[in-house]
Amino acid sequence: MKPLAVTSNYRLEQLPDLPTLSETVLPNFHVASWNMLFGPRGLPDAIRKTLSDALVEAVTAPQFRDRMRAIGVAPVGRPAAEAEAFFEQELIRWKRVIDVAGVKLER
After folding, report:
1. pTM score
2. How far is 77 from 37, CA to CA, in rounded Å?
3. CA 68 remoteness from chain centre
4. Of all residues in the chain, what percent carry a pLDDT higher than 90?
5. pLDDT tens digits, residue range 70-85?
6. Long-range contacts for 101-105 (Cβ within 8 Å, ≥24 apart)?
């Protein structure tokens, strides 16, 4: 198998010569998986900040980043407010995809 492109909006560090789909045939296209830690609604700001700071510190630690990069994962580690804004944008983005595609929930 020969890889043709990656779906992320950036080239992989491990395969710097492999273009993104956006660079080749689908301008502005990107799809990437992501993980996020969520807390309960109404979590006090002080606890939210403590958890957010600890998570960013853990995700940006050199040992963690190196391990993740070795398996093709690019850890980001965003503060809570940035992560929340990212999540809201993802909700908008994927709702539009679902609406345009006419996806219906089957029960």
Report:
1. 0.79
2. 11
3. 14
4. 78
5. 887 888 899 999 999 9
6. none
